[in-house]
Amino acid sequence: MREQVKNLKYIFQPKSVAIIGASGTPTKVGAVVLRNLVEGKFSGRIYPINPKYKTLARFKCYPSVLDVKGKIDCVIIAVPAPVVPKVLEQCGKKKIKGVVVLSGGFSEVGNVELEKQLKRIADKYKMGLIGPNCLGVLNPYKRVDSIFLPMYKLKRPRPGGISFVTQSGATGTCVVDLAAQFGVGVSKFISYGNGTVIDENDLLEFLENDKKTEQILLYLEGTKNGSRLLETMKKVNRKKPIVVLKAGRSERASKAAFSHTGNLAGNYLAYEAAFRQAGVVVAYSLDELFEFVKIFKQALPKGKRIGVVTNGGGLGVLTADVIEEKHLALAEFSEKTKKELKKIIPTYANAENPLDIIADADSALYRKALDIMERAAEVDIIIVIVLFQAPAVDERILNILIELSDKKKKPVAVIAVGGEYTEGHRKILESYGVPTYSSPSDAVKAVKKLVDYAGWADLKR
Amino acid sequence: MTIIDDFKFLKKHGFAPLPYALARSEKEVVEAGKRIGYPLVLKVVSPEIIHKTDVGGVIIGIKNRKALRAAYNEIMENTRGKKVDGVLVQKKARKGIELIIGGKKDEQFGHLVVIGLGGIYVEVFRDISARICPISREDVKAMIMELKSHPIIMGTRGRRAIHIKSLEDLVLRICRFMERENVSEMDLNPVIFNENGYDIIDVRFRRAGK
């Protein structure tokens, strides 16, 4: 990693943060960022910078970073674009190594030279610089928050193992909001905007070495260096699974006309090829991004044979259909497994896969059936369908599922279809890291991604 | 660039398209036919005609000299008024599955190699898979498996699988060739594959700077 990438640590674990363009006008970006740091209980020192104020939010306000006596690890810049080079130069002189430039008005509106100037300064002082034209970053572990959206409008996610890298601030906003809503734990959130100094490749490499990051979500609109992206993804994906959502797919329809008369393939085809080569998981919507990522907390499967346990026959069949459609396999229960199952299931139930333990099954029966699935050598993946609506199923099932998932011996996915009551249980399972889905197709689609990834990882071993 | 230039370029780099010759007169056509051997296919060569079949510029299944003369005259008749460089006399391909193999240089990723179900199905099914060069044999295997039509390639309903290794070899060679010669766009379409190997029937190039 080059020094500027290493210096990103000053952005994510700063002991002190300065906000250039901090303001007393509540709707200004610099005001929101200051308020968020305070309300978010950032524990380090905070230095508002703005020559117009003596104090802001009970903090002493400084005319420039050069007027601050103490060391500054990270600076958040929220001043108009033409002023950025000047204040950045001051940051350089102050030996600030971490910079987030929220300001827009650079190459995205044609001000290419201004952006180059910014890069020259950042390179000269070896700054790790995120942006410009970005939403900011989050590190929930350290309560670092430079997102310029108010907290009452945009909830912040709890600490966890997933890191988000996004080119678009708007998509980033949705992702942060949804992550908070779904209870998805986040390690780092990074909106990198124009990626002038630090681009998606740098961030992937940084996260590869970030101890708190287990999986990476990447929202990409385009890249300036495809070959490097391919190599970086290949390398990082081996260590930490990457789920990517690429915008601009519709090109595929228009330009992918792979014909004798001309245009061979649209640009999306190249991205798609690169994603396949890198073995990364491709999502086609924000929903899928979340559906896919949660299953990657599970152990990697050794094969694609699925054992399905259900207290509702119909859902078992629906699940079996999708398993077949996705070219996965229903495990063929061995004689040994069948014998064990027959001992525990009612006489009127069949020891077949999907295993229907019947609507009157209680949590204890689930546990016994799941124990057998865990031991069965012919089962690589366990899908548990729970009709929470059934009378005999109670809260104890939650512990059983959480324990099963925590063992990380075989990957587990839970399907729970239903309304408010079911939804409540689904959320509890989710919050304990059990991948829970509201439909058989969502669950099996995610399992398929995990199987594909495991196959790729195995191939590259 | 005419088809003849494209074939020459391909041959120069070690690929073996079906035996062919350019003929500019009835006499040349007959000589070429004798040299290549029947059955033959005749195709008009013209910078003005893109869809040769649509104008009656292609005649297939020519079994002897008499039919060859007739075919030549028929093509000349059908294309009257157009700028015609001559006709391509080509050996008739073996029976098999039509595939397309090609690629292009992508601005961001470099060379991209693509395989797919070829011939008239290209437009209909868009059944293609792609990789960024360079690639390994494992990559080609994965590309084949990604095609929806891979059961056809692997043999289905009494039809034998195509010669997979020669497909893999060809794709790997195309990849290296495109990178080495900096080809901006090309496709072999169709290449007919069967259990014994393949015949390259047609080729298009767009080279960098041209």
**What value does the Rg of chain B take, in angstroms?**
18 Å
Catalogue the unreliable spans of chain A.
252-265
Helix count of chain B equals 7
Strand content of chain B: 25-35%
Largest sheet of chain B: 6 strands, antiparallel
Keywords:
heterodimer; A: 461 residues; alpha/beta; Rossmann fold; 2 domains; seven-stranded mixed sheet; six-stranded parallel sheet; 17 helices; 20 strands; 17% strand; elongated; B: 210 residues; alpha+beta; Dna Ligase, domain 1; D-amino Acid Aminotransferase, Chain A, domain 1; six-stranded antiparallel sheet; four-stranded antiparallel sheet; 7 helices; 10 strands; 34% helix; globular
Concise overview:
The complex is a heterodimer of chains A (461) and B (210). Chain A is of the alpha/beta class and 461 residues long. Chain A contains 17 helices and 20 strands.
Description:
Chain A has a 7-stranded mixed β-sheet with strand order 9-8-11-10-12-13-14, with helices on both faces. In chain A, strands 15, 16, 17, 18, 19 and 20 form a 6-stranded parallel β-sheet that branches. Chain A is α/β, with parallel strands linked by helices and 461 residues long. In chain A, α12 crosses α17. Chain A contains 17 helices and 20 strands. Helix content of chain A is 40%, strand content 17%. Chain A folds into 2 domains: 211 residues, NAD(P)-binding Rossmann-like Domain (Rossmann fold), CATH 3.40.50; 155 residues, Succinyl-CoA synthetase domains (Rossmann fold, 3-Layer(aba) Sandwich). Chain B is an alpha+beta fold. Chain B folds into 2 domains: 73 residues, Dna Ligase, domain 1 (2-Layer Sandwich); 111 residues, 2-Layer Sandwich (D-amino Acid Aminotransferase, Chain A, domain 1). In chain B, 34% of the residues lie in helices and 31% in strands. In chain B, strands 5, 6, 7, 8, 9 and 10 form a 6-stranded antiparallel β-sheet that branches. A 4-stranded antiparallel β-sheet of chain B has the order 1-4-2-3, covered by helices on one side. The longest helix of chain B is centred in the last third of the chain and has 18 residues. The model of chain B has no long low-confidence stretch (mean pLDDT 90). The interface between A and B is medium-sized, with 26 and 32 residues.
